[in-house]
Structures are given as C-alpha cells and as structure tokens.
Amino acid sequence: MSVRSVKCPGCGTSLNVPVAMANVKCPSCATIWNVDNPGAAQISADAKQQKQLAEAAVETDSGNKVNFAIIGGLVAAGMVLLGIIGVSVMLISQTPAPSEIESPEAETIKPRIPEPYREVDLPESERMAIYADYRAVAKTTVEKALILPQGTRVRKNLEVMLEKTYDRELVHFSLLHNIEVEDVLEIIKEGDAKVWDDSPRSHAVRDGKRVYAEEMSEGWKKSPNSN
C-alpha cells in the first residue's frame, strides 16, 4: 500500500497516510481536512489554542530581547557616566588647595610691601569710593578663587575672561570719574598702602602664583598711622 506524507493545517504535525485516503483527521489536534484541499480544513479548537500559545511565546521572547537590549544600553551608559564622574572627582581631589601651592615666602602677583603711589587730584572721599568699587570688582574677577584644575584649557579661558572683565571695569572707573586708567591704578596703590580695605584677601591662584601672600589672606591689621 502506497503512503504519502501530509502536514496538518491546524498544528503542523506531519502524518503518513494512504494515498487513497482523501480526508484525514489529525491525531494531535483533531483537525479534519481534505488532503487535496487543505485550505478548507476544519481547524479544531485545540489547534487554534496551540497556535495562539505559540504566537504569544514568540512575542514574549521578542519583547524580552528588546528589554534586555534596553537594559544593557542603560547599564553601559551608567558605567560611562560613573567613569566620567570618577575621573572628575579624582582631578579635583588631586588639585592642591590654593593655600598649599605656594609657601608664604613664594612669589606673589600682588606685592607684599605697598608700592609708592602718586596722589590723584581728586577728593579723598572720591578716591576711597573708587577704591571700594575696585575691591568689589577684584573679588569677583582677578581675585576669585577657582576650583578648576590649573593647567587646563577651561581654567585658562576662565582666567582670561575674568581678567578682561576686570580691565573693562578699570576703564569704566576712569570714564566715570573723568580720569585716566593710570590714575585709577594709582588710587588702587594708595588704597593698598593706606589699607582702606582691611578684610582678609583671597587665596586665589593664577599661573601657579598666589595673588596675595598667605599672611594677607589670613587677615591684616590696619596701621594706626594710616588713613
């Protein structure tokens, strides 16, 4: 007796049936179909349920793969972010505090001993007002302590920007009081010499040098002979 292999249209099970058999019933899912017309098969409820379960399993597996990919990407991004934060913290922590970079005897940008000055032809009250304005600007520009590591491009660019802001303000003072910038600088020297501002100076560092000597940053006492 000749046999042929057919495939159940309901569950996909392969069967060997006699060639003369026209209608076949699947022993796995009970689907009945004509071997010459499987498209008109009577799909059983069991076959439909098995197909739905198989499709659901495929969708779940695909969803799990996508979720794993997303989670993997987030974990990788988190590791990179932690690495960047770690390097930044290390750079900042390894940068010595400004007060530790230079010893009290090291060279400073501002002289320890007041410089000789020329008294500008303005009332002292006006000269003192100019000096007070200068101190306010200096504290936020050239005397501002920076936490960025020295030697970096970002640090240098910031220092240049603050220096330019400071220079513009000196020009502004000269125009406001109808004097030269050189006169403003002389008033600054006078104010330093007479200690018109006796508050402790900044610990700021520029190009590896303290702006002020360390003892001036600790605070100074106004001379009883100054005015």
General description of the model:
This protein starts with a strand and ends in a 10-residue tail after the last helix. Helix content is 49%, strand content 11%. The protein is mostly helical and 227 residues long. The C terminus is likely disordered. The chain has a 3-stranded antiparallel β-sheet with strand order 3-4-5, with no helix packed on it. The protein has 2 domains: 46 residues, no CATH class; 119 residues, no CATH class. The radius of gyration is 43 Å and the shape is rod-shaped.
Computed structural class? mainly alpha
Alpha carbon gap, first and last residue = 129 Å
What letter string, H or E per element, gives the SSE order? EEEEEHHHHHEEH
Q: Unreliable runs, pLDDT <50, ≥5 residues? A: 92-104, 220-227
Biggest sheet layout: 3 strands, antiparallel
Query: In total, how many beta strands?
Result: 7
Q: What is the spatial order of strands in the main beta sheet?
A: 3-4-5
Shape label = rod-shaped
**Assembly context of the chains:** single chain
Helix content bin: 40-55%
The whole-angstrom Rg is 43 Å
β-strand percent reads 5-15%
Count of domains:
2
Count of runs of 4 or more consecutive helical residues? 6
Mean pLDDT: 75
Topology, element by element:
Blueprint: E1 3-7, E2 14-18, E3 23-25, E4 32-34, E5 37-42, H1 45-94, H2 98-101, H3 124-140, H4 153-176, H5 181-193, E6 205-206, E7 209-210, H6 214-217
Antiparallel strand pairs: 1-2, 3-4, 4-5, 6-7
Helix pairs in contact: 3-4, 3-5, 4-5
Transmembrane segments: 68-92
Keywords: Membrane, Transmembrane, Transmembrane helix
